[in-house]
Design a protein that fits this description.
The complex is a heterodimer.
Chain A lengths: L2 H16 L3 H16 L32 H4 L7 H9 L1 H4 L13 H14 L1
Helix pairs in contact in A: 2-6, 4-6
Chain B lengths: L2 E2 L3 E6 L3 H12 L4 E4 L19 H6 L12 E4 L7 E2 L33 H9 L17 H14 L8 E2 L2 E2 L22 H13 L5 E2 L9 E2 L5 E2 L21 H4 L1 H4 L5 E4 L2 E9 L4 E9 L5 E11 L2 H11 L23 E8 L15 E4 L18 E6 L19 H11 L3 E8 L8 E9 L5 E6 L4 H20 L4 E2 L39 E2 L2 E6 L14 H20 L5
Parallel strand pairs in B: 1-14, 2-3, 2-14, 3-11, 4-20, 14-23
Antiparallel strand pairs in B: 4-5, 6-7, 8-16, 9-10, 12-13, 13-14, 15-18, 15-21, 16-17, 17-18, 19-20, 22-23
Helix pairs in contact in B: 1-11, 4-11
The chains are: A mainly alpha, B alpha/beta.
Chain lengths: 122, 586
């Protein structure tokens, strides 16, 4: 094989490794997250809601510079797969009095998509 | 002594919906735009954050996001033969104040108007004969057509993620939509909102009577939406705090939510808040606007802002007032029937019947701004007026918009207004009542107009705008007739208790909220003798001055006015791009 063709092959293999496989498998997760993206960024900036960058493993109500409700500040919860699933299925039931204006996600698969997306943000 | 500022290409007065749409078109082509808004940016304040966002007393009752009546109000008289008096507290309509204007706290009801509305005079004359239009009703064609505006209606709906069901796609009537709607190229961007219990009852009753009900078109997002500019809307939470509030879920489509954040990223765009425009500097000889003079409400400094192009987008009342204060164009005089600025001032003819259902859970608190189901059989000229003593009609609908503790106190007629019996009736009927409403057209009358008050002034020393207005014979007759149709529908809904069936009558009561749909004052048209601006919204007496908003409507239709004015604003934006590169009569 000529040098040129060998280079192309190497580049093709390398780019197959570098190109995020996440581009394919992330698609459903991102779509589920769209409903959250209106208020929550993933880049560290706060808006209507606190940024969800680094939320996995984070203590609830602790993003610097965001004005949480008293309920969220005092909840004392560590966000993981289980607590996120409970919260997202019914935010008001899980942390009564919090002010996230969202009634929850009924579908467990959709919730799992969102949670997987959030985990991947870390 | 006003301080003179560096010159700008385009200055837009009023930081609301129209300014945002025009700016979107202009800044996309790199044209320099400065927007001057008298209010503040509410985006990070108490109106935009829970729990203060839901303070009904502050925002809904005390009008926290609206015009400050202590600074500037309107005077009112019902006829020319009365003395006008200042309205100390305006309940009837609610001009916005702040970035986004009234469209930041609106309900979101958005219609395209009837296909024939822009050529209404021709329509009525053709169908019923020239003598069908009373002499005192100066209906006039707009000089533009629905077909010309359709692409802009389409763009606006996509920018604002409208939720609804199409009734007419390119001439093909669609089941479940409005069979009377003007033909559209596409379905709505999003599916309709939830129907609600009130809608279910109304739908069954109207269908049994042979009508064709449809969901009201809504600038409330039914799902998650990404607009063509990459701006987002979240799903409506049906929180019942829509009109008069900012939306906590980013579900209400607003200029401050969807347009201004984008505009602020563009280099050629600037918005100055707390900038109260007092005057348009006008060269009468050259027939040109030179710029505007404004007051910085924070510092108290007065500024002269020169501009190549001036656009008035400050709501019906301020648009008209600024022209009058600046002496641009002749003020309308009803005696001589001379002058154009201030004429064709219209409002909206509202009526309704209250219903009480013992066994149906209406739950009015589960509501968005546009959770209504409507029929259009008796709107505008959708029905035969040959044997009727009026023109126009109304959109009839049932729904809920809120169940808030101060406002939602529907009790049957005869209930005492306080005490034990009142409390019992509240508990008994709160979750079980709704209304069927008729939102009717309001056609112009030679005696309904705006001009400057000879006595009263605002806090800056400038004459207040005077409304000479009442609901006249045509509207009273139309309302009586349409409300009877409402009554028939109500009977078919089989309520346990039904309120009185009464059309709207004068005198116009400024204490009672009747929608913010005041229109006219700077009407558009093909003839400078009967219009203030051309069909391209260009002022006949100042080539570089443009006016947009419902102030350019020669009449008001049986619909909320926002749809066509948004389309006109987008089209004006494109026209101004052309004008900016080659100034001329468009």
């Amino acid at each position: 094989m000529g040098l040129y063709l060998r280079c192309i092959l190497v580049m093709a293999v390398v780019s197959a490794l570098i190109l995020p496989r996440a581009a394919r498998s992330d698609a459903p997760k991102k779509a589920a997250f769209d409903q959250c993206a209106v208020c929550h960024s993933t880049d560290g900036s706060n808006g209507t809601g606190p940024t969800l960058k680094g939320v996995f493993g984070r203590q609830s109500g602790t993003v610097a510079g965001f004005r949480y409700s008293r309920a969220m500040r005092g909840a004392g919860i560590r966000w993981d797969e289980k607590t996120l699933d409970q919260y997202l299925s019914s935010p008001q039931e899980f942390i009564a009095g919090n002010v996230m204006p969202f009634s929850g996600v009924d579908d467990p698969t959709e919730r799992a998509s969102i949670i997987a997306y959030l985990r991947a943000l870390n | 002594m006003a301080k003179r500022l560096p010159h700008r290409r385009v200055v837009i007065v009023g930081g609301g919906l129209c300014a945002a749409l025009i700016s979107r078109q202009l800044t996309a082509q790199g044209v320099d735009v400065l927007v001057l808004e008298r209010g503040i940016d509410h985006a990070n304040g108490p109106a935009a954050r829970l729990p203060s966002q839901r303070d009904e007393l502050r925002w809904a009752q005390r009008q926290g996001l609206m015009q400050n009546w202590q600074r500037e109000t309107y005077t009112l008289r019902h006829t020319r033969h009365e003395e006008s008096l200042p309205v100390r507290w305006m309940g009837a309509f609610l001009p916005g104040e702040g970035v986004g204007g009234a469209a930041s706290h609106w309900n979101g009801q958005t219609w395209r108007w009837s296909e024939y509305d822009p050529a209404l005079r021709t329509r009525y004359e053709t169908r019923y004969g020239k003598s069908a239009i009373p002499k005192e009703m100066p209906l006039q064609d707009w000089g533009t057509t629905y077909a010309e505006l359709e692409p802009y209606h389409d763009l606006f709906e996509k920018l604002f993620g409208l939720s609804g069901k199409a009734g007419n796609i390119e001439g093909l009537i669609q089941a479940g939509g409005n069979p009377f709607e003007a033909p559209r190229r596409d379905e709505y961007p999003q599916r309709p909102l939830e129907i609600t219990e009130a809608g279910i009852i109304f739908k069954a009753a109207t269908e049994s009577l042979g009508y064709r009900p449809f969901p009201g078109p809504a600038a409330n997002s039914s799902g998650t939406y990404l607009n063509p500019d990459g701006q987002r809307l979240g799903p409506c939470q049906y929180c019942g705090h829509c009109e008069r509030f900012l939306c906590e879920a980013h579900a209400k489509a607003t200029p401050d939510g969807l347009l201004y954040p984008l505009l602020r990223t563009r280099k050629s765009f600037e918005i100055r808040t707390h900038a109260q425009v007092l005057h348009i500097d006008y060269d009468r000889q050259a027939k040109r606007a030179l710029g505007v003079r404004y007051l910085d409400l924070e510092s108290g400094e007065e500024y002269q802002q020169p501009a190549d192009i001036v656009v008035l987008a400050a709501f019906t009342m301020s648009n008209t007032r600024l022209l009058l204060l600046s002496g641009i164009g002749a003020s309308y005089d009803p005696t001589a029937r001379h002058g154009v600025v201030g004429k064709n001032f219209c409002y909206q003819t509202q009526s309704g019947v209250g219903l009480f259902f013992r066994n149906r859970w209406i739950n009015p608190f589960l509501a968005a701004g546009c959770t209504l189901t409507a029929i259009d059989e008796y709107n505008n000229d959708n029905f035969d007026h040959s044997a009727l003593p009026f023109l126009g009609g109304a959109n009839i609908s049932a729904g809920v918009t809120n169940g808030r503790p101060i406002r939602s106190r529907s009790t049957p007629s005869g209930t005492p207004r306080w005490g034990t019996e009142w409390k019992k009736a509240n508990a008994e009927w709160y979750a079980h009542s709704c209304g069927v409403g008729a939102q009717g057209s309001c056609y112009p009358h030679v005696e309904n107009y705006l001009d400057l008050d000879p006595v009263y002034r605002d806090i800056y020393g400038l004459p207040l705008l005077r409304m000479t207005f009442d609901f006249r014979e045509n509207e009273v007759k139309m309302s009586r007739w349409v409300t009877e149709k409402v009554g028939e529908i109500c009977k078919a809904m089989a309520p346990d208790i039904m309120g009185p069936v009464k059309g709207l009558q004068g005198p116009f009561d400024s204490r009672v909220y009747q929608s913010t749909h005041v229109t006219g004052g700077t009407v558009m048209g093909a003839d400078p003798r009967s219009s203030v601006v051309s069909t391209h919204l260009q002022h006949w007496d100042a080539e570089n001055l443009f006016v947009v908003g419902a102030s350019v409507y020669p009449h008001n239709s049986g619909y909320n006015p926002t749809g066509p004015l948004a389309a006109l604003a987008l089209r004006l934006g494109d026209d101004l791009v052309r004008y900016s590169s080659r100034p001329r009569q468009l």
